[in-house]
Amino acid sequence: QVQLVQSGGGLVHTGGSLRLSCAASGSVFGIDAMGWFRQVPGKPRELVAAITRGGSTNYADSVKGRFTISRDNTENTVYLQMNSLKPEDTAVYYCKASVYLDLSIEAGSWGQGTQVTVSS
Q: Fewest CB atoms within 10 Å of the CB: 42, 45, 56, 81?
């Protein structure tokens, strides 16, 4: 019902920046939380950052102080500004939208994923 289309990502050197975008369409009325996960081959998908409709945010400890999540409720778009990137940030990043406040709840809609690669 909800479609998420991601943009951004790419290749940067250590210390560089990237900005990811995720636009929701379809049945967007019920969406509360939106945010970003990342996954490395052979590892579980992990939550990076989340933001509620009201603007409450939370971040993984590994990205606090470097990444900023924001949201445009009018455009139904969520962003992830990634600064001071490190090689360990290299992963496929996935956008997620959920009717729940807690994005870690399994139910929800996913974007197609985009590769972020940070070279050393």
A: 42
Give the whole-angstrom CA distance, residue 69 versus residue 21.
10
- Token pair of 12, please? 């940067």
Mapped onto helix, strand or coil, the DSSP state of residue 89 is: helix
- How far apart are alpha carbons 69 and 58 in whole angstroms? 9
Q: What is the mean pLDDT of residues 38-43?
A: 96
Return phi, psi of residue 89, to 5°.
Answer: -80, -10
106, pLDDT greater than 90:
no
Q: Which residue is listed with tokens 């943009």? A: 7
The contacts of residue 16 (CB under 8 Å, 6+ apart) are 85, 118
Token output for 52: 């509620």
What percentage of the chain reaches a pLDDT higher than 70? Answer: 100
**Strand pairing of 114-119 and 10-13?**
parallel
Give the integer Cα–Cα distance in Å for 108 and 99: 7
